[in-house]
Model the fold of this input.
Amino acid sequence: MTTPQDRLARDTRESVRGIPDATVARLPVYLRALTELAERGVATVSSEELATAAGVNSAKLRKDLSHLGSYGTRGVGYEVEYLVYQISRELGLTQEWRVVIIGVGNLGHALANYGGFASRGFTVVALLDADPDVVGEHVAGLRVRSTDELEDVVAAEGVSIGVLATPGPAAQDLCDRLVGTGITSVLNFAPVVLSVPEGVDVRKVDLSTELQILAFHEQRKAARDAVHAAGLTAADEHDAEEVAQ
Amino acid sequence: MTTPQDRLARDTRESVRGIPDATVARLPVYLRALTELAERGVATVSSEELATAAGVNSAKLRKDLSHLGSYGTRGVGYEVEYLVYQISRELGLTQEWRVVIIGVGNLGHALANYGGFASRGFTVVALLDADPDVVGEHVAGLRVRSTDELEDVVAAEGVSIGVLATPGPAAQDLCDRLVGTGITSVLNFAPVVLSVPEGVDVRKVDLSTELQILAFHEQRKAARDAVHAAGLTAADEHDAEEVAQ
DNA sequence: GCAACTTTGTGCGTGTGTTCACAAGTACCT
DNA sequence: AGGTACTTGTGAACACACGCACAAAGTTGC
Done:
């Protein structure tokens, strides 16, 4: 699957397919680190420095970036501004993404007011809630509308990404309606597993899952410490493991 | 590394070490699905059913559960209540985890009021904020205290997990102070990469990262659709890929 | 008590991701 | 111009994860 002209076609083809999921998941982290460097006026950065800032191994960083193309200069490093642009382009952040947030409870409020979206090309264009008491309120400069209007809002506002911040039981139905409008990207904060047709991407953020994973490792550390404190031989002393993020 | 007596020692040893990270990350999902089944009065469940509910492959589910021990019955399935207990125990949810939330902005509010914590053994025992205007407010039944009191609060309340919901710039300093008190588990919502000494676990939840990953796939889908619409040959027709969660 | 059926637990092939280590390329100094 | 120092990009080995497919083990019905 590696023809001679692949090298020529790389820039076109590899941007359409072939970037590993694990790499895509790290690009936003690199982007954030680079943006910070740019604000501090740093012009170029080595893979070693950037890797440290992003909290990853430098070889991994180089391999990740190599999937986008050869944007570094040997002996020097990467030009910060240029790399910011290339990663932004690859992630699709050079265009505006119009987002609807469904569910304006505590979390919906937080999301609507979260500054990190706007700076990355995401515009929250509508807020929906099922509760008549919430509908009509103004949050983050937007009037909250009824979930009854979901289909109208998506069409009228040209929404392409839906964010679900509702209680669990309501999420699947609203997700189905989002999918019904043609939306194929959903970010789900509700504590349920959504089922969607093929071709629709769902990403899930679960607050309590993260705490549970921490609790597991904390328990494990406590158990290990207990063993050490009990004064056993140093047989397990090599177990200085670190947990990957 | 597989001695004959490993089988006997499995239950003791494997609960302390040897559960793959990927498995640990899925246990909370299984737990949620099982809790739901228990509430509906379901007594036993097959790996096939549970896998569907959790959105994973059934073989993967069985292998995950096998790491905890042989808690299923061939020909029957798994007893729901028993499995709930075993997973809870493995994750350390049979004990109370005392949590401090630092940063009581929109997100901090949402976290303080989030019901999903209490039901899993996590108790929010203190809220801290640097803003004098916020200090003294009552949120989720707790009086917000100053971040100046961080060390006192952690010691007095027996906090073992810290949650950072501050703006980016404040996070590293507060994280250092948490670590200084002896805390080794931190959940970070601030948009920065925290650096911590060995032995401290940091998990990061980044709202905008998730949207960026969605945007990448959305862009990719749009590009593919454009190719199809352009009426090329059916050479790429097999590309009906699905994106893993 | 035996046969047919169901479902778990796992060996194994496959694929993806990570890391090391180094050749190749670039800049700078003399 | 040539040598030295530095950094990228990547081949190759390794580690981890996934999912098929099946033997082992249990249940049900006759």
Summary: The mean pLDDT of chain A is 88. Residues 46-48, 59, 62-63, 65-66, 70, 72-78 of chain A lie near DNA strand D (CB under 10 Å from a C1').
